[in-house]
């Protein structure tokens, strides 16, 4: 019987990839209502905990000092008690600032893969992305699971019933922050195609060995514009200088 993944397995896999890369000092941090941005080698983004899970503001002292090690901040993702906190978001932003998009990435939206690969199939999405309503007609069955369901969504508590039916699954990268990704992957069929998407998604090749087939993250080609936009409370899709990129696993990701 195949060993079940734990959330720590996933986070350790990501940290393994980060520690193989050169460290860099943190040059700048920006925080808005929905995203945090961190500039080291490059700009890394991560989503913030939803407002119902956190205070409306965080103390300024929680932000890392300029010149601090991005790798040391990234490693805090493994600390007990960080799940769903600002620390987890900052750590993931540091990870994304240290893991560059590989040359194999294509400038393609994750939802385009979803629409193409999921045509006439059973598709589940974890997280109510802006594209979900327009995507519904393309699929044989379509389920959107949310912790805070909107009209037409399914409550996330139904995952154990719905996910084993899915041929294709798209999962928000914030599941790396709130502790739920491992449980989701353990419910998927071995033959299901799994996409991890959103600005929190790291380009960590070790995730391919954990059951994820496609990493749909981002690259901020204009650091100043991206960091300014984060501080102006913009959503990712509104950021200037940010591009969505998609990396699909090969048969052997090594």
Mean pLDDT: 89
Strand and helix order: HEEEHHHEHEEHEHHEEHE
Instruction: Please provide the count of β strands.
Output: 10
CATH topology of the largest domain: Rossmann fold
Q: Strands of the largest sheet, in order across it? A: 6-5-4-7-8-9-10
CATH architecture of the largest domain: 3-Layer(aba) Sandwich
What does this structure look like?
By secondary structure, this protein is of the alpha/beta class. It has two domains: 7-98, 2-Layer Sandwich (Enolase-like, domain 1); 110-221 and 237-248, Rossmann fold. It is 27% helix and 20% strand. It is built from nine helices and ten strands. It has helices at 7-19, 70-75, 86-98, 110-117, 132-135, 159-162, 175-178, 181-187, 223-231, and strands spanning 28-31, 35-39, 43-47, 122-126, 141-146, 154-155, 168-172, 193-197, 214-220, 242-248. The strands form two sheets. A seven-stranded mixed beta sheet has the order 6-5-4-7-8-9-10. Strands 1-2-3 form a three-stranded antiparallel beta sheet. A hairpin with a 3-residue loop joins strand 2 and strand 3 (43-47). The longest helix is centred in the N-terminal third of the chain and has 13 residues, at 7-19. It is globular and about 50 Å long. The two termini are 24 Å apart. Mean pLDDT is 89; it is low at 52-56.
Annotate the secondary structure layout.
Elements: H1 7-19, E1 28-31, E2 35-39, E3 43-47, H2 70-75, H3 86-98, H4 110-117, E4 122-126, H5 132-135, E5 141-146, E6 154-155, H6 159-162, E7 168-172, H7 175-178, H8 181-187, E8 193-197, E9 214-220, H9 223-231, E10 242-248
């Amino acid at each position: 019987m195949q060993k079940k993944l734990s959330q720590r397995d996933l986070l350790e896999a990501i940290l393994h990839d980060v520690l193989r890369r050169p460290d860099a000092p943190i040059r700048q941090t920006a925080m808005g209502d929905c995203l945090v941005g961190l500039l080291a080698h490059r700009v890394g983004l991560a989503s913030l905990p939803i407002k119902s899970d956190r205070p409306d503001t965080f103390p300024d002292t929680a932000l890392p000092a300029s010149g601090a090690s991005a790798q040391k901040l990234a490693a805090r993702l493994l600390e007990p008690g960080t799940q769903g906190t600002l620390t987890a978001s900052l750590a993931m932003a540091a990870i994304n600032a240290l893991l560059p998009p590989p040359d194999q990435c294509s400038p393609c939206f994750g939802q385009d893969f979803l629409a193409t690969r999921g045509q006439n199939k059973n598709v589940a999405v974890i997280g109510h992305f802006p594209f979900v309503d327009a995507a519904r007609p393309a699929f044989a069955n379509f389920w959107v699971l949310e912790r805070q369901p909107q009209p037409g969504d399914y409550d996330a508590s139904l995952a154990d019933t719905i996910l084993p039916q899915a041929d294709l699954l798209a999962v928000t990268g914030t599941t790396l922050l709130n502790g739920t990704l491992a449980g989701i992957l353990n419910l998927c069929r071995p033959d299901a195609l799994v996409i991890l998407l959103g600005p929190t998604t790291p380009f960590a090749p070790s995730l391919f060995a954990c059951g994820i087939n496609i990493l749909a993250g981002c690259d901020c080609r204009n650091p100043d514009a991206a960091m300014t936009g984060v501080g102006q409370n913009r959503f990712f899709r509104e950021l200037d200088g940010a591009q969505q990129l998609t990396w699909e696993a090969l048969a052997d990701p090594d």
